[in-house]
## 1
Amino acid sequence: MAPGSPAKMVVIGAGLMGSALARAFAAAGHDVAVWNRTPGKAKAVGGGTTAFENLLEAVQGRELVVVSVSNYVASFELLSAKGVAAALAGKTLVQLTSGSPADARSGLEWAMANGVDYLDAAILAYPSFVATDYATVFYAGSRAVFDRHLETLRAIAKNSTYVDEKIGSAATLDCAILEAYYGGSLAFLHAAAMCKAEGLDPKAFFAQKNSFLGLLSVTADAAQGMIENNDFTGDQCSLNTHVAAIEHIVRLSKDARISARFPKELLDNYKRAVSAGLGTQELPAVFRTLTQD
Ligand code: NAP
């Protein structure tokens, strides 16, 4: 494919995400075939895409194959269907199904065994973000293969970021960001529950969003430096003092008869670091106990 010319491609999977990806590629002028296990969903994608009922016919002659299904098992079952792997030989497969680094490694193994160029990707966006400035997609694998398709891939996310040649690196970064997202979200939802239980309108808490996000941002920067230097000493606030603060959160939750699971789990982790002799160090010292089982 000459740079800038429309790609002949196929999107396998027309769920919420696959449909948004297919429409974004088509809107950027690419020739997009769509296949989905439930054919009606492929037909419903529209936006100039072409729905196929037969997977082999959908992939034949397509130089770029994008997969977005529920999991890797489903994905590689589809790609191993009769004739499909052979049709993909010499083409590029971009795996946009979410998975673990181990999934990515088995994906690469499959691709190498079948003579297929492989990029393992992780999308950090809701379907409504696709093709907007809010969408980020991380890619791992061969830099040359990524560069070859970058212009096409930018149709789904301007922020299309190459992470590393290590095939599991996009999934690793995705898991890391998602852990911070889910953990942070659970924390603020529990915080809102505490406010409600104590008769304080959760609005008062959400109005302080920038206070806790700012604190998190400063702590993340400090943690990065401390982890790099393997030095967690400081003069701001000891882990002992943080543990006392978390004990207040557990106490509030119990007194107000709401779930104390989350603050107890926090307390457990922070106390473990104190028990390991890190009580006089700064908060990021917990990292030391997290790198052990
Ligand atoms: P979804 O709406 O539930 O769609 C799932 C898709 O997978 C459907 O096309 C479904 O086909 C297909 N599928 C599932 N099992 C299959 C099988 N055994 N054989 C063939 N096809 C199968 O999910 P989604 O939100 O589009 O998510 C797709 C991928 O994107 C997931 O890996 C997800 O983690 C990732 N992702 C999603 C979001 C998001 O916000 N939605 C964000 C980031 C990443 P049928 O229609 O026939 O059931």
## 2
Amino acid sequence: MGRTLLVTGGAGFIGSNYVHYVLGSQPEDRVVVLDKLTYAGNLDNLKSLVDDPRYHFVQGDICDAETVARVLDAHGVDAIVNFAAETHVDRSIADPDAFIRTDVLGTHTLLEAARERGMRYHQVSTDEVYGHVPEGASVETDPLEPRSPYAASKAGGDLLVNAYFVTYGLHTTITRGSNNIGPFQYPEKVLPLFATNAMEGEMLPVYGDGLQERDYQWVGDHCEAIDLVLRRGAPGEAYNVGTGTSITNMEMTQLVLETLGKDRGLIRHVADRPGHDRRYCIDTAKIRALGWRSRHTPQEAIRESVRWYVDNEWWWRPIKSGAFKAYYQEMYGSRGDYQAG
Ligand code: NAD
Ligand code: DAU
């Protein structure tokens, strides 16, 4: 018997990859996407599915309880998988309001709808809720110590999910993923920004010394893990998802340039992000105990991602020539060079 999933934020990067994963691997499943189509939502990400009768798209806001109720009831939804969020750390530093609204209040709206219907709920969260990890690796029971407005709003969402499990007995799960890379990632994020800038002969703005560490994982691996937790995760539990290996941003940048055959002279060290978390690293033993394995190393994921942007200029060129230009100018135009020490 197939499932009917409400995938919120399904027109974004990871959400759309998840929709492709579910419909590609589960012939009986149906997916309803609810997405506000903010600057980050893009129907091009889902356009190969428009003729699939198992896929249905609704434009709407997860903060709007009436819309959420109408969609859940009209489509006989079995479970909510919540990807919808404001997601870019730099934007959260410039203007946190939308982050608190969608990532906290939106999560609350969905949880209420799930509680009223006794519905399975999965929250897609992030390793950023643990904050900077100077050494070792974060386990799921570690305290949440978020340091950016984005991370704080995501941590708020996680805490609400936990409260709905404890107080109301709602069947919830959470996954905390590390940095995803792959097809359909909006080019404000570092990998598509650097790959497409290099292809255009533009500078690659590395924040600070570039020795910050991130666990870059292939988005398809993350999607598999989310679906496994939705099926087999224990109620009330959180699961870290990543390769378990973090590399520096300089290593990632050099690999991007090497894959494209471009010169290191394109690298420019610029002023650092305020409050920049130096290192994230997660322990993935818990999700591996469910039977999941990461299929790509960070290096493989980086190379494969870069090749996707090389092969899919139709997707990113219209984005970079639109409103993105003003964003880029505002974010990077007056950013000074990095001063060491
Ligand atoms: P994204 O920014 O590419 O997409 C977000 C989507 O949510 C967009 O389609 C947008 O239109 C939609 N959206 C935003 N506000 C909405 C609202 N109020 N109502 C309905 N839809 C709304 O994000 P992403 O990178 O795909 O991230 C998806 C989820 O995964 C987020 O919850 C994020 O916190 C989490 N996450 C991301 C990463 C990563 O590396 N990108 C890693 C771990 C976890
Ligand atoms: O760790 C998971 C998180 O990964 C997700 O929860 C977030 O939604 C997602 O945006 C991502 O957050 P990061 O801040 O790690 O991703 P971003 O691509 O913005 O930056 C990755 C690293 O690269 C980070 O150390 C900052 C650095 N960076 C980023 C940009 C945009 C640069 O050096 N230069 C840049 O221009």
## 3
Amino acid sequence: MTTTALTAVAAVDPFSPEVLSDPLPFQAALRDAGPVVRLTRYDDLYGMGRYADAHAALVDWQRFCSSAGVGLSNFRREAPWRPPSLLLEADPPHHDAPRRVLAPILGPRALRRLRERWFAVAEEHVDTLLAGAGPVLEVDAMPALAEAFPLRVFPDAVGIPREGREHLLPYGDHLFNAFGPPNDLVAKGAPHVAEHAGWVNAQCAREVLSDDGFGAAIWAAADRGDITHDQAPLVVRSLLSAGVDTTVHGLGAVLRAMATHPGAWDRLRADPRLSRVAFEEAIRWESPVQTFFRTAEVDVAIGDTVVPEGAKILMFLGSANHDPRHWDDPDAFDLDRDPSGHVGFGMGLHQCVGQHVARLEAEALLTALAARVARIEVAAEPTRHLNNTMHAFATQPMRLHLAGL
Ligand code: OVM
């Protein structure tokens, strides 16, 4: 790459509306510019877009720490907008007790208890949507499927009351914006943060939570002494922070993949067990969580560049998931590839603790749709919902062609 080209990519704002709405061209230039690039729009900021280097940094928690925040803001210099997450924004050893508590609560064994119910809810949800529709239903798949299904099953599983759940998506939207720079997206959310955050924080109290959900299990861990009673509400807050918007846009991704790859949908209908690999490949392909930052704990040499201690490094998860140095034909959604090793759920000790929950939601919804919908057709091009962290859809107008009609 020429010096001019390198200077040009380094000067791009990765959080501009242009890049957020269509990130792949910028990410390709970023990868070509080197293993690490100083992003000159912001002070002390570096970016990593290649799979090998981003992966290596994500597993190197000793040198690329999270406790100074995983957004642009450095908690060692600036006060965070909310008390830091005990999981996401913590390093070992503090990180480890909350993680050890949460992992089995959201693990495959515990989820077996929810599997039948979530499949039944998905069937009922899709049946209700399709009822009386005739042979073809035209629908916006974002509110009708990608948002409605997780908003039905996940808050119930956490054990929060029905009342007020409309705060969950705007809270998550602001939280994911707030990892980025203080741009217009953050300013637009700011006037309403206090009411959303106030409601979310109130749902983390023991008295508010049902006695059989993920929330109660976190409080029970505090009673056993595995975490403190002061930590319990913040661990519940992590579920309500990380568990809603992420799955909405993960489901949005796999629905987009199925609408644009009718052959893949035919195969999934014939064998709904393919919904697991379809979801995983959609997470790689779309990378709903595009970026997270780390902070250099010491001076770190990467290639010819030294990232100085205290600098922020932006990990481009979506870019790593599209790196042709690692993936064949990375921009293609391909049901036949092995997407494992993608960094869409992160990598290393912070790798998504809720990934089994997300996969179960996707499997339940896709299986219900596969039994009832012969073809998913794009009715109009989707529109993007811009967010500093999430690659998200606002709308996805689709036509669902009913099976057997
Ligand atoms: C948390 C948290 C919040 C947002 C995202 C996330 C993707 C975690 O509060 O722990 O992980």
